[in-house]
Amino acid sequence: MSCPIMEVREGPPCEERLPTPGAEDNPTDHPELEGESGTDVKKPAEDLSDGKTDGGELEEELDPRIQEELERLNQASEEINQLELQLDDARTAYRRILTESARRLNSLATQLGACIEKARPYYEARRLAKEAQQDTHSAALRYERAVSMHAAAREMVFVAEQGVTADKNRLDPTWQEMLNHATCKVNEAEEERLRSEFEHQRVTRQCHGAEARVQTLQKSLKRVIIKSRPYFELKAQFNTVLEEHKSRVTSLEVSVSQAKLRYSAALRNLEQISEEIHARRTKGPLLTLRAPPLGAEAPTPMTDSEMDPTADTVSLFSLQTIASDLQKSDSVEHLRGLSDVTSLDGRDIEAEEGESSMGRERAGDRGSRGTFGHHRSVSL
């Protein structure tokens, strides 16, 4: 005898639902996810770093630029320290010589008396004459350089004119441009030559005047000049030594400034490299240790029914039993007026059809009252 097809409908969600038979016999697929109180226990996140620790993820290969900049930073720091020590020593020596020179000159001036002040104009004129000679020499060098540039520019103009006048280059714009450029150079060189010539003439006249004044003072102050000579000679010696120490101090100050600039540049480079690394880490993919959704860790294992073909028959009888129980619990009220209750087993087909139609009518009435029911049909 073939099994009848049974249609079972559940009531609205507000009604009490009976537990599914056999549910207590089926343990959960993930027993490790349930706690003692029945609440779910989250599975700890799996390590997604392929065996790498968190510290290992953050460890990156050291940028070689960092090592280079650190070496430059250390080198500049050591150089600054050494130069500052040398600068302090040079300044101390300069102050010591300055103090010693002032003490000795004052002592000598006390011994010589008023002849020093009387002979001072002569030595001042000598100093100015010496500076005028140096200025004259510099002006002469500038004038010679301007004359050489003017001659070279005129030679360039001559070559450009020869190229332009040639038959094959009459329409060549390159030669025209070269001629114009050479002409501009000649004009600039001519102006520089004139300025240098005028400056040379001026400083030459000034030098001649300073030398003439020196000769005049030397004749008029010959006696006091001889008497005060030890003082001014000693002063000239101290001035030479002080100039040397002053030049050394100035040179060390420049060196310290350059070393500090290199130190600052190394610091800026390190800061820039740090910002680049931080930006690269921020823009890079972020590794988040999150557990995959439940059921996504591994493929769904095969059930016993898939592994054992004989389990289909057992499942069929189980479904028939469940459908029969549901039929008894849901539709027994509609069958009170029937004479033959054995139709629940599928023996009376007509009674079963009447029962199904009555169940559908009641379900329609429930739907008209605005309640929503969950319908489930089981076909055997």
UniProtKB/TrEMBL annotation:
Tell me the InterPro entries matching this sequence.
Answer: SH3BP5
Q: Where is this region: Disordered?
A: 1-61, 346-380
Q: What is its main location?
A: cytoplasm
Which stretches does UniProt call biased (Basic and acidic residues)? 7-18, 27-55, 358-368
Q: Which UniProt keywords apply?
A: Coiled coil, Cytoplasm, Guanine-nucleotide releasing factor
Q: Which GO terms describe its molecular function?
A: guanyl-nucleotide exchange factor activity; protein kinase inhibitor activity; SH3 domain binding
A GO BP annotation:
intracellular signal transduction
Q: Name one GO cellular component term.
A: cytoplasm
Tell me the domain comment: The N-terminal half of the protein mediates interaction with RAB11A and functions as guanine nucleotide exchange factor. Four long alpha-helices (interrupted by a central kink) assemble into coiled coils, giving rise to a 'V' shape.
State the family named in the UniProt similarity comment for this chain: Belongs to the SH3BP5 family.
What protein name is recorded for this chain?
A: SH3 domain-binding protein 5
